Amino acid sequence: MNARALPTTVEEIRLAAHVASELRPEHFETVRVPLRRAGVGQVLVRNLLLRVAAVTRTLMAPERVLPMAPYRPGRALGGAALGQVVEAPGTGLRPGELVRHDYGWQQYALLPSASVRRVDPARWPDPAACLSQGFVGWLAVDRTGVRAGDTVLVTGAAGGVGTVAGQFARLRGAGRLIGTTSARWKAERLRRELGFDAVLVRGQGPIAEQLRAAAPEGVDVLVDTVGGEQFEAALSCARRGARCAVVGAVGRQAGGGTRAQATLDTLAMFSGGISVQGLTVRDHQASAARWEAEFSAGLREGRLRFPHVRLAGLGQAPGALLDLLAGRHLGTVLVETHW
Length: 339
Hints:
The chain has 339 residues and is an alpha/beta fold. It has two domains: 3-132 and 306-336, Alpha-Beta Complex (Quinone Oxidoreductase, Chain A, domain 1); 135-282, NAD(P)-binding Rossmann-like Domain (Rossmann fold), CATH 3.40.50.720. Helix content is 26%, strand content 25%. It contains ten helices and 15 strands. Helix 2 (135-144) runs parallel beside helix 3 (160-171) and helix 5 (207-214) runs parallel beside helix 6 (228-236). GO terms for molecular function: oxidoreductase activity; zinc ion binding. Residues 21-335 form the Enoyl reductase (ER) domain. This is NADP-dependent oxidoreductase.
C-alpha cells in the first residue's frame, strides 16, 4: 500500500470503563483516530486479523491478577494480531511483509520494531494459523509427557487451546481421549472432527460421575483450561502417577472472576504420586519455535487441523468476545479488522 492510499483516520476499539461484574457492550468504545506515520525504528502495520481471547475479559478488570497489566480506560484494547507492514524506516522490515504483534483491536498499529515478529507465509497453509491459541495446549501435552496408551482428559476441549491440545495428545499416542465442553453440538463436533473418544457436557450431570463412566480405569494426564469443579473431578479420577497441567481458568474468567479456587486432596496427591504444574506461554517462549515447527508441519501434512471461526469487520470484535465467553464458538475466534 503506498502513502497516497493510506486513510487519514482509522478505527480502534477502546475500554470505556473497567468491568467489575458482567461484561456488556457499553464497556467497549469504538473511535476514529488520526493515522500516525512511522518514524525511524517504528513499524506501521495494517492489521488483518485479530484473535479474540478470554484473557481480554480478565484484563478489563481493575485489579491485576495476571503477569500483564490491566487495560486502561480510554486506551485501545490489546490482542494477538496478524498484520502487513505498511512502512518501517530503519528497521529492515519491508512493506508487504506479514508480522505478528499484540495490538489487534485497531485497524492500524504503530509499534516499535521490537514489538513485531515476522511471519513466513510459506510455513503456513493459512497464515491465520499463526494466531492459534494452541501453543499452551501443545506445551501441556509436551510437559506432561503424554505417551502411548495414556488416558488424557482435556477440559474446555472446544476452545482454542483444547482443540489443539487434544490433537497433539492423540499424535503422542493417547489411547483414550476425553474432553469436556458446554454444549452437545460442540461435543458432537469434537468426536466427529477431532477424534475425541468421549466428551462430557457441563450441565448433563456431575462431571465427576460422567468422568468415572468415561474413564473407569482413571486418568493419566489432565490438560485443564477450566478449573473449579472440572479440575477437582479430574483429580478424583487420577491414576497413580498422573500428570496434570493447568493452563487456564476459563470457567471463572467467562463470568468475570479473577480467582479460580479448587479443593485439593493433598493426601491423595502425594500418596498417588500425582503432579500438578501451572504453565503459561510467557514463561516458555524458548519453546515457541518448536511449537510453531510442529504445528505448521502438522497442518501442511494434513495430520492436524486449525479449528477456528472468522468474523468480518473490527466492529464484530466486542460481540465476538461476548459470544466466546458465553460458549457460542468452537476453536480460535478471529476477526478480520478490515471489511
